[in-house]
Design a protein that fits this description.
It is a single chain. The chain is α/β, with parallel strands linked by helices and 404 residues long. It has two domains: 3-214 and 374-400, Crotonobetainyl-coa:carnitine coa-transferase, domain 1 (Rossmann fold), CATH 3.40.50; 242-324, 2-Layer Sandwich (formyl-coa transferase, domain 3), CATH 3.30.1540. It contains 19 helices and eleven strands. The strands form three sheets. The protein has a six-stranded parallel beta sheet, with helices on both faces. The protein has a three-stranded antiparallel beta sheet with strand order 7-8-9, with helices on one face. The protein has a two-stranded antiparallel sheet with strand order 10-11. The protein is elongated. The relative contact order is 0.12.
Amino acid sequence: MGEGVGHHRPAGAFHQRVVAHRGSGIDRLVDVALLDGAELLAGLPRPDPGIAIRLQFGGDRQPVRIALAQLNPKVGDLSGNLALARKALDDARAARADILIENFRPGTMERWGLGYEELSAINPRLIMVRVSGYGQTGPYSQRAGYGAIGEAMGGLRYVIGDPSTPPSRAGIAIGDTLAAMHAAFGAVMAVNARHRTGRGQVVDSAIYEAVLNFMESIVIEYDKTGYIRERTGPILPNISPSNVYPTADGQQILIGANQDTVFKRLAKAMGQPELGDDPRYATHGARGQHQQELDEIIARWTATVNATELLDLLEESGVPSGRIYRAPEMLEDAHFKARNAIVRLMHPEFGEVAMQNVAPRLSDTPGSVRHCGPELGQHTEEILTGELGYSTEKIATLRQAGIV
């Protein structure tokens, strides 16, 4: 892929990361006055309070380092007052860009004279990727829309958590990420269409629709039967056994043995092969009807075996199972290491840092994470002089005016 221009919020940032991993050069325009903790890992406890401050706050505390190191592996920073610089700089970049990614409330780019009609007149091949809470049209399009709201409206929040608690958060910004993945996929489809038509187009990725698109059959279930999915905690209702079970050494593992033949193998591994022929558990439907009591039987057995021994036994028996990983387990896992799922790169301030590698893997063009991402404004002069042809005097004037 070629070059792109990005305006940054979480969904737009993840999109930039995805395409940058495949070799696209991205120039990111940032209004430093608008930087805030919403772009970052705000509010989370850190071992080093100094790092926590840099992550939580904007302005002269330069929060973008860790966040950009993670989100934007090949993004040039063109920092300054976006309100003043946007027209001249975006017009110049749009004339050369393949894709422009923006993550503003719908209508903002148009108010700035940077709508698709204006930019495509400069560059008819331009693809404009627009990520927003509710999409570019419709009665809610002008509403402020963060990922959390999209997750709620798209139906995800309602089904996450235990039935005894209010709807829960997934623990990550899944709504923003889903919208970004849809945006990236849409951009690829638009590039493919451009090979045929010679023209670009708009990719409209709404957070709530991206979430909705992943919600399996909840709509048709209600439409045809009146059934509404509820929160079920760690289980799949009527799918058993498929749950989290305790071990003798205080760990928890997942076991998924809901297929009839797999359950028979589990029963044999438990030393209770008769369970596989018991009418209460012998078939998929029967196990679903006796889900709670079967889970209790399995939990009593797993609680007598250490996790490593248990997992080895289940693996030998052909029963799907696994630990519940956190970052420490990921960093030590042999499979992660063998596939380089996590890479380590040098950061100018924090030294060696670990982060996720590129996924998915392509055999001929695998992509890579080449560096941790730039400092705020690191590439401003390089982009203005090398790519836009601005003179030293013109850049000095822009700096004096507070534009860059």
